[in-house]
Amino acid sequence: MIRRLLFLYAFLLPYEELLGGSWAVKPYRLTGFVLLFLWTTGVVIPRMHLRLDLFDRVFFFIFYLGLFTAAFWYVVTGKGNVSWALGDFALFFFVFLVYLAIKDEVRSFQDIAALMRPYVMGTVSSVVVYAVLVESPTNGRFEAFDANPNRLAVAVGVSLFFIVAQFLFVKKTRTGLRLVLYGTSFLVLSASLLFTGSFGALAGIAAGAVVLALLGTRQALGTRASLSAGRLIAFVALIVLGTAILSNLFTRYSDESSAIYRYQLGVSHASRSRLDILQTSWNVAQDHYLLGPGLGEYRYYHREYIAKLSNVRDIAIADQDLVAHDDYLDQLNSSGFFGLVMFVALLVILSRALFRKLGDRNAPYSLSVFLIVSLTFLCVDGGSHILLRSPDYWFLLALMTAYIRLRPDSPTQAKRRAVAELPTSSTRSLDMA
User: Fold this and answer.
1) Share in percent of the chain as helix, strand, coil (round to 5)
2) Is the pLDDT of residue 329 over 70?
3) Fewer CB within 10 A of the terminal residue: the chain, N end or C end?
4) Radius of gyration of the chain from Cα atoms?
5) How confident is the model at residue 139 (pLDDT cuts 50, 70, 90)?
């Protein structure tokens, strides 16, 4: 039952606003609450032990440090909004518990791919259903049921990389129907990404594509089993077709879509507000001795520090309580320089561990490539948006950190695990997914 709920949770992540904007009444959160109840009462309490690794402990410490810092400054200076800090911590605590549940339930390399498939299916279906039944992608920046174009861009970008990794590197995908589904999904997601108007996601896609090309070249040169020439030709043809479709969409809707108009204005225009926030968020952190004002507290100081700027590039942001719009600056303001260093160090450790998996012949090459490229995408896109508070980010982070600690079973262990899992129908469905 727990694993079936994990599948449902992954599928519903791209449907955040399907039931409206209430904090709790979001499909993935409702599923997550049930999941956590069953996991806590059925697994954690009977076992009376939960294995935590370096990533788990340090991530929790960073966010706890942010909450403590917000409380500290509120007591010392009387300034701040503790309810924002508590709200952000509550959201973090929820997604962090789901993150732990996912890691606890992932027991094989196949489980990683099995959990990614409903996430990709949810993203594709959210895009298609919203575009057909709710609103055209050309009306404003397209957000589907995510209710945020930048978050949709994250789901689309990661899903694109999963499809490409499966298309190129999984040898057993020989059915023509599955390849057609991959190709169709690739084109649909590419078009939806265009209409999100997200420059950060496009930069992340570009960085991820470079890493993907390098890893594909590495495999083609013989470090692992060679790429299929037929698959490579089909993929190149898909890229050519996709480029032609996107070019046609760009030209056709250049006068209708605000997202395409945003591209036409260029990066310099779109980055005006980001540059203002970059300057003010640094000033806020600096005025708090690089300890930061605490978790969620940049919003409290945003208007005050925007007013102090001698040259505001985008006046529209002056009357809003905005967040830092940058994972790294957000960490600097939430948990200070110390917290930022720990956060970046964890990303470096994680990336090195994923690269080491490339040399592990027991680890699927397709998954190693997908997770490395996805981490690259998230690190780059995180420079223009706050992804750390997104449930999608923690879902993917759970898969990455679970993947690096997986070890192939010995023949005896594999036999025991297979026998232990035989009575569980939900487990059989996971292995067949």
Assistant:
1) 75, 0, 25
2) yes
3) N
4) 22
5) confident
**b or e along 308-343 (b: 16 or more beta carbons within 10 Å of the residue's beta carbon)?**
eeeebbbeebeeeebbbbbbbbbbbbbbbeebbebb
The span from the CA of 268 to the CA of 199, in Å, is 11
Residue with tokens 């089993």: 225
Distance CA(400)–CA(363), nearest Å, equals: 13
Nearest to 26 by CA among 9, 39, 3, 5: 9
* DSSP secondary structure letters along 121-187: HHHHHHHHHIIIII--TTSSS--GGGT-HHHHHHHHHHHHHHHHHHHHH-TT---HHHHHHHHHHHH
How far CA 412 is from CA of 175, 379, 421, in Å, comes to: 33, 39, 14
CB 54 within 8 A of CB 349: yes
What's at 179, amino acid-wise?
L
Residue 246 has pLDDT above 70, yes or no: yes
* 239 pLDDT above the threshold of 70: yes
CA 153 to chain centre: 10
Q: What's the pLDDT score for residue 219? A: 74
